[in-house]
Design goal:
Strand order of the largest sheet: 1-2
Helix content: 25-40%
Strand content: 5-15%
Number of strands: 2
Order of helices and strands: HEE
Structural class: alpha+beta
Radius of gyration: 12 Å
Distance between the termini: 25 Å
């Protein structure tokens, strides 16, 4: 499971790598990110906030 990173964590200042091919591993990462986002009652989560340096985000535009 991903561990959320907060303001001040050095990983949040690093440059994330672009996403290339969509793989099963990337899909699994997105699923894990959604679980964390909903557990924390958020509307979006970027992969670096979970400690993964990839340019990937998940968003729920209608969180209700």
């Amino acid at each position: 499971m991903l561990r959320l990173r907060y303001y001040g964590d050095p990983i949040l200042r690093e440059k994330a790598a672009p996403v290339g091919e969509i793989t099963d591993e990337l899909r699994e990462l997105a699923r894990e990110m959604l679980v964390v986002m909903y557990r924390e009652v958020g509307v979006g989560l970027a992969a670096p906030q979970g400690g993964v340096l990839q340019r990937l985000i998940v968003v729920d535009p209608d969180p209700d």
